[in-house]
Amino acid sequence: MGGIFQEEREDGRREGFQQGRQEALREGLLKAIQFGLELKFGVAGLALLPDIQKIQDLDLLNTIQEALKIANSPQEIRLLWEPPTSH
Q1: Cβ-contact 16, 9 below 8 angstroms
Q2: Host domain of residue 37
Q3: Quick check: is 70 in a domain?
Q4: How far is Cα 76 from Cα 78, in angstroms, rounded to an integer?
Q5: How many C-alpha atoms does 56 have within 13 Å on its Cβ side?
Q6: Other Cβ atoms closer than 10 A to 56
Q7: Which of 4, 7, 38, 86 is least enclosed by beta carbons within 10 angstroms?
């Protein structure tokens, strides 16, 4: 009799665990990005942080973190999520 309810409860736990894990990964990536921005570009790099903190896509955050290794300017990093504007 408790089978259906038990399965729903377990599904809810798994979903909650997965969401918690995703958020922990996101927070770790954000900390790594913050460190990289500050180390490489100083205050100019940290100016990107408010926009980066709005990003939920873990793949994009990973891309940003990796790009910090080779980017020459904060503007190069910004181009990863914000396409250039044409005048």
Answers
A1: no
A2: 3-78
A3: yes
A4: 5
A5: 1
A6: 10
A7: 86
User: Quick check: 58 and 29 in contact, CB under 8 A?
Assistant: yes
Give a yes or no: residue 34 inside a domain: yes
Nearest Cα neighbor of 34 from 61, 5, 6 is 61
Query: Is there a contact between 65 and 33 (Cβ–Cβ < 8 Å)?
Result: yes
- pLDDT tens, residue order, the chain (87 aa): 557 767 777 776 777 777 888 899 999 999 999 999 999 999 999 999 999 999 999 999 999 999 999 999 999 999 999 977 765
Instruction: Specify whether the CB–CB gap between 78 and 45 falls below 8 A.
Output: no
For residue 87, tell me if it sits in a domain. Answer: no
Structure-token match 């996101």, residue found: 26
Contact between residue 52 and residue 30 where contact means Cβ atoms under 8 Å apart = yes
